[in-house]
Design goal:
Elements (H helix, E strand, L loop, with lengths): L6 H16 L4 H12 L1 H6 L9 H19 L1 H19 L13 H31 L2 H23 L4 H15 L10 H20 L4 H9 L11 H11 L4 H22 L1 H5 L7 H27 L5 H20 L1
């Protein structure tokens, strides 16, 4: 009996998963559409909606690898955030004189609790609704329609940004000026790669300061917007970016928050589904899962590296919106008549 997922399938899907998880084009949508468009054995092996499909175990491995790649890329930021969380717990247990016990004292402390708060709604919704959403909505034609809707959402985000014309450009100039003169924790007279890393760190701290000004309610709302990404074709990062832009964030800051927010959500979703990988569903496909996961992690790392630079140059969501509309509408027509 042949394995339910072949190595060529694992290689192709692993790479596509890693890239599309970070690009605002929906990795789950591609996981559903690619097998349907290829047809044949691919459609049989790579079925998301089938209750006992080994493809589910395969996706678990790819999600964990993608999340780890994101944590590795932002390891300096996560180190600051984790230190902030630990410091906030210490402040609660032993508050400094003249300060409120429950009030975060630093940017890192507030950002840590914003991420936790934003993760709660999608965590609850995922536990309660993920199975039903996957079974009832992961149909190829319906997924293609949702992907087209995702394109419209991205266009709406760009329309909102244009109403705040100049915001992205102004913040980029401010970030560069701040980094050039020596931002928080930056050494002015460094050279080479170290100088570049210090500059990036200074810009990241400045961005985090802006993110923490959106408030607790907005952070909760941005996290809750991820619930829509349970629908295959709706991008988690895309919906958070657009929601952030509607709340007044620049495109670059909205993208940063979406990337930071995605890592714990994706990692938690993967870890909770690990029994699928270690149980009967993983039998006969663990080698393919390993290959696909490695490629997914590598693809996610380089996709994230590209996107961070892309948005730092004030590039728009429009190319991704066009892609989603074209692929979504085209797939719906092709699958509908085939």
């Amino acid at each position: 009996m042949y394995p339910h997922i072949t190595y060529p399938e694992a290689i192709v899907v692993g790479l596509i998963q890693g890239v599309t998880e970070l690009f605002p084009v929906s990795s789950l949508g591609h996981n559903v559409l690619i097998p349907a468009l290829v047809g044949g054995r691919w459609a049989q092996d790579l079925s998301v909606s089938a209750p006992e499909s080994p493809y589910l175990a395969f996706i678990v491995g790819m999600h964990v690898a993608t999340a780890l790649a994101m944590i590795i890329y932002f390891w300096r930021d996560w180190l600051r955030i984790v230190r902030g969380f630990v410091g906030s717990v210490g402040h609660v247990l032993s508050p400094a004189p003249g300060t409120r016990r429950w009030q975060p004292q630093t940017v890192e402390q507030k950002l840590a609790w914003m991420i936790i708060l934003a993760t709660i709604p999608v965590g609850i919704a995922g536990l309660a609704l993920e199975h039903d959403f996957r079974v009832y909505f992961s149909k190829p034609v319906l997924t293609a329609v949702f992907l087209a809707v995702n394109g419209l959402i991205l266009f709406a985000g760009e329309a909102a940004r244009r109403r705040r014309a100049g915001l992205d450009e102004q913040q980029t100039v401010e970030d560069r000026q701040m980094a050039a003169v020596g931002g928080p924790g930056m050494v002015r007279h460094a050279s080479g790669q170290r100088a570049l890393k210090l500059q990036e760190a200074a810009i990241a701290v400045q961005a985090d300061r802006r993110l923490t000004t959106v408030g607790w309610l907005s952070a909760f709302g941005l996290g809750a917007s991820q619930i829509f990404a349970l629908l295959p074709g709706i991008s988690r990062d895309g919906i958070v970016m657009v929601s952030g832009m509607f709340r007044g964030l620049s495109r670059q800051d909205a993208a940063r928050f979406s990337f930071l927010l995605s890592a714990p959500v994706i990692l938690a979703a993967g870890v909770l589904k690990v029994p699928d990988l270690t149980g009967p569903l993983g039998n006969g496909v663990r080698g393919q899962v390993l290959v696909g996961s490695i490629l997914s992690g590598v693809g996610a790392y380089f996709a994230l590296r590209f996107l961070v630079r892309y948005f730092s140059q004030n590039r728009t969501l429009t190319p991704f919106a066009i892609y989603c509309l074209v692929v979504g509408v085209g797939s719906a027509i092709y699958l509908g008549i085939s």
